[in-house]
Amino acid sequence: MGRNHEGAIPIDIETRAVHMPDIDWPKNSASPPLFQTAAYAYHSVETVDRILSGDETGFTYTRSGNPTTEALEKLLASLEGAARAVVTASGSGAMLAGILALLPRPGALLVAREIYGGTVGLARRILEPMGYTFHWIDTHQLDELPQLFRQFGGLLIAETISNPLGRVCPLDAIIPLAHQAQVKVLVDNTFATPYHAAPLDWGADLVVHSLTKFIGGHSDLILGAVLGSGPVVDSAREIVDVMGLTPDPFASWLAFRGARTLPLRMERASQNALSLAQWLTTRPEVDAVHYPGLSEHEDHQHAARLLKRGYGAVLSMRLRGGLPAVEAMASRLQHVQFVPSLGDVATTISHPVVASHRELSREEKEAVRIDDGVVRVSVGIEQIADVTADFEQALKGGEKGA
């Protein structure tokens, strides 16, 4: 038998090996600790009962809460200017939890015409069979919106900066119109991040993020978040708990680490994106460049009014020659990789027709000017001269690896 603490029951090595050591865990770590645990141990049934009843703070099971995730939620709420936040297992999970929190019974989903394709898939494949109805809304036609809001009611879903053409609708004017008709508003702030925009200041009922993208920032995690006032976020938290949309603590720890450098990364990436967009407008191989920071962009005035500290890190371009030109450029790029995601510290490209907007029909893609020649560029924090040089040789037709 092994040694034991004074008064403790002696136990053998097989038992000692599986039990936690008695450690006074430090509470003053300079970096937030990772609580990679599924559950929490207690010596009192009454204590667990009080925690589960909400009469005492604490953690019992990580599906319902975790200290690492709670730290991330508090940081995100601070960045977004929200009363509370709840972190989810993915951005799609955040969108689902946000929709159900604001519209718990089947109703109308009024979806901005240029929304991310994954949101369309969620509405059509999951929510429509449950009784929700799907309606495209042109959020750039302000005069038509009051009638549509009165006609349908329900929930408006929009983006601060749209994917992939960088459309910026006047949300500061739209949200009051929606509320006058008792329509709730959910804003996806993934592209802008809290660094560039604060939709809650415009009156949004909820904000969602794919933390996978710029807030995580390193392509090494999958998470989402829902932010807003206390009661509605509490409703979203209950949905996350009951539906099992809970994040893994390690992913939360990674996102916390990434969020701490968000302002530095977005400042550099936004500057790089503007520089690259301006350069691409001079290229004969490019038919059009879409970036709200360009003075010629159709929504530049809205973007200049609503966005802070720059215009984000995502742009898109339409190549002459369509898909063959896209394939040729992608094969020739030496440093910029083709990645069906965005928000990394490195610059990447993607093809919306193939990836982010494949849920849309060809007619729906064409209605928002997404065709085979459109390439989305997520600009990173590299030396922009290196990124520009890579695009230059790829557009000119230089051989890969040369």
Describe what is shown at a glance.
The protein is an alpha/beta fold and 402 residues long. The protein has 15 helices and twelve strands.
Descriptors:
402 residues; Aspartate Aminotransferase, domain 2; Aspartate Aminotransferase, domain 1; 2 domains
Describe the overall structure.
The chain has 2 domains: 45-259, Type I PLP-dependent aspartate aminotransferase-like (Major domain) (Aspartate Aminotransferase, domain 2); 262-396, Alpha-Beta Complex (Aspartate Aminotransferase, domain 1). Residues 398-402 have low confidence and may be disordered. The chain is built from 15 helices and 12 strands. The chain is globular. Strand 4 (155-159), helix 7 and strand 5 form a beta-alpha-beta unit. It has 402 residues and is an alpha/beta fold. It has helices at residues 13-16, 45-53, 67-80, 91-102, 117-127, 145-152, 171-180, 193-196, 230-243, 249-259, 262-280, 300-306, 322-332, 362-367, 384-396; strands at 84-88, 108-112, 133-137, 155-159, 184-188, 206-210, 224-228, 286-290, 314-319, 337-338, 348-350, 374-378.
